Amino acid sequence: MVSDRVYRLLKITKDAMFENKYAGIPLKVFNDEEIFELELRNVFTKNWVFLGFESEIPNPGDYVLRYIGIDPFIVIRGEDNKIRTLLNICRHKGNLIIRDERGNSKFFQCPYHGWTYDYKGKLVGVPFREKGFKNLDLESWGLIQARTETYEGLIFATINPKAPSLEEYLGDAKWYLDIIVKATGGIEVIGPPHKWIADINWKSDVDNFGDSLHPFYTHKVIGDLGLIETRKNRFSNSKTVSRTEFLVVDIKDKRNFPVSWLIYRMDPNQEDVYFSYPAEIVKSFNQSSVNEDQWYILRKGAAMIFSVYPNLNIIIEGFTKIGSKDPYLPVLFFRQTNPLAPDKSIIWRWYPVPKGTPEDLRIKLADLARATFSSTGVIEQDDVFMWRGQTRAARGIIAEDIILNYQFGSLGMGDVDIVKDAKWPGTVIGTNLSDIGLKTFWKRWALDMLGESNE
């Protein structure tokens, strides 16, 4: 049951988003114990959650530890080459079975009492069984499994038996994903994910991904230092904003619920720039894997900021460099902010590269991504500082009555130019200077939290 207090906060959010007012999200939703508990139940246990890349576990027996909400899971490639997601909790006395972040094993033995499970999660070993567990039904005491499906090398899982298939859940978001995971010839990660804990609410990160205003101020120093080519990148100032920027909102799943949104910027000179990937990588791209419109986005793209509900964020940030004498290269990363508490999250970041990338460039691209977007990255530090401030402000009682303004660039407030003849899925807007993109997340979040979008 939802308390009257929380129901009021959720109803305010839903009404604001669906009535096109875009003002109405209470600050309190960014830091509240009851809302956090409801998120774990209605958001993370109901939907498909990204867990990583198949390339992280290439061999039979390879495994990594991942999370759905705050629940720990072992993602393993079995001896049958099938990928499974097993709850990392022993069925005997509830201890964590393994603590290693990654490894290779055919079996998992709980260190507490020695119960042992195979790669399928089946209970195969019980110490002193003949003395104390003679009639134990091993089939009934295997590890809990999440449904696991993959899409073009990306691993997703859900613990909701009634959830639609992954393809149905991604819906039209696959059209944009394909630009990254197909047109590039496929991608694979460089090393394990980089992760760190921050005193932030997980939604602060997701909300920021659709925020097109903050780069002008939060990240102004990046352009001043010349680390970003502001004429071609999204970190531009007001004098360089052009009509070659787009916001795509309300990208739907197969059930017609919003599931994805993105910001896209093309090169103002209409050059074939491929997000500033060098020629030796571009030659391995696969144009036949996508249609003409998708290839056009890759060919002309300077930056794309892409989110998949609930907490997968992807960036291709072209025309970026570390030192003033370095060549401009793209930054590509997958980011997931997992909740730990209302005011604490763990940020996971993967650094993939196109499969055809030469070894020397693989290292350069990964280093560039870490230098800009990581716990010590010049851009990431700016963002986390802001998210921490928002999370702290939301802690108080008065935050329940503080309504946040999401009217920037909305109908009646800004220059909203809907591209009516667009062939791209979703609603395409001819500018990214708008908070309208944020509404896609908040619409779905409100529906989930009120129990209106899932079984």
What's the gist of this structure?
This protein has 455 residues and is α+β, with helices and mostly antiparallel strands. It has helices at 4-18, 33-44, 129-132, 166-170, 173-181, 202-209, 220-224, 279-282, 292-300, 359-372, 380-393, 438-449, and strands at residues 23-26, 49-53, 62-68, 71-77, 83-87, 102-104, 107-109, 116-118, 123-125, 145-151, 154-158, 187-189, 194-198, 245-252, 258-266, 301-308, 312-320, 329-341, 344-350, 352-354, 403-405, 427-429.
Description:
- 46% of the residues are buried.
- The protein has 455 residues and is of the alpha+beta class.
- Helices cover 24% and strands 27% of the residues.
- It contains 12 helices and 22 strands.
- It is globular, with a radius of gyration of 23 Å.
- The two termini are 16 Å apart.
- The chain folds into 2 domains: 49-159, Rieske [2Fe-2S] iron-sulphur domain (Rieske Iron-sulfur Protein), CATH 2.102.10; 171-449, Naphthalene 1,2-dioxygenase Alpha Subunit, Chain A, domain 1 (Alpha-Beta Complex), CATH 3.90.380.10.
- A hairpin with an 8-residue loop joins strand 17 (312-320) and strand 18.
- Residues 48-157 form the Rieske domain.
- Keywords: 2Fe-2S, Iron, Iron-sulfur, Metal-binding, Oxidoreductase.
- Belongs to the bacterial ring-hydroxylating dioxygenase alpha subunit family.
- This is Rieske domain-containing protein.
- One of its GO terms (molecular function) is metal ion binding.
